[in-house]
Amino acid sequence: MSEHLASRRQVEEALGEAGVPVTVLRAAMIIGSGSASFEILRYLVERLPIMVTPKWVSTPCQPIAVRNVIGYLTGVLAKPETAGQLYDIGGPEVLCYRDIMRVMAEELGLRKRWILPVPVLTPHLSSYWIHLVTPLSHKIARPLAQGLKNPVVCRENRIHEMVPQELLTVREAIRAALGRMAEHHVETHWSMAGPIPGDPDWAGGTVFRNEREIEIDAPAWAAYRAVCRVGGGHGWYAADWLWRIRGWMDLLMGGPGLRRGRRDPEAVGYGEALDFWRVTGIEKDRRLALRAEMKLPGEAKLEFAIEERGGERCRLRQTALFLPRGLAGIVYWYAVAPFHHFVFGGMIEGIRREAAAIGRQGKPEVGA
Hints:
14 strands
């Protein structure tokens, strides 16, 4: 087995050693909106009409829809006899990855994708290709790509007798996932995984600061909604071409770039990714704090603080902080400082205009 698949067995063993009855459900690819495997397939198919791939595109796989996985997970809780047992779970079809890509293209309404397997493209090399073409970093793509060389097909089907349910085909699972994305009903996303570091220790070192304030003719809730729209398809309110250049530079240096986008065009939550930023602080209608995950010679943070001014007015304070790491960090700050007027000045002005427009529309009803 690949290191990725072997690590799953190690988790089984570690949980089993705790003395609590453990029920193991072993799945191959889980198809659902927001999952890393699904996003890899979607981006590859969307962006590459011709794909030169490793031989693993011919490996058999038995994908399962995320709703069926949840059905099994909740189902075994009602079956005491499943405690301590091990089950393989999968959908009703066994397909190779080439066929899954073909189905994905059809459901996306795209022309036929040409897939050319070659023996010289290793999983290690393909993980870097995935890093360039999709939003996933090579650190995530590499173990996933290595695992694709192993056939993952159910050896038995006992679980379906214990927890009967209607299993979605690969096409139905992909269609359901794409539908949830179109409706912005993606509760979790692969980019939310991983550690969220605490605030850096700014004391004791040189901290560069770009702070701007602006009065907004709109209530605080409207300004907060405008702030929460940053990133993703909406952009950063100003100098988007500079953000795109910075995103490509970050991508070439091994960072996430702008490819991660955001889970929802309006709502944000703690720990979520907004392009190459991470939400590290959030107070509704008052504050949003972001920490940069781009490749930098230092640590960067971007904060938005909103203060009520009475009536239908508020004040927005936008603060960019940078803690340089060595001489390279100091040189970096002064190199990009000339662009701050366009980037940060344009951003706060764009938020002001957006907040005013939102305020004129009126506050939406609760639950809307």
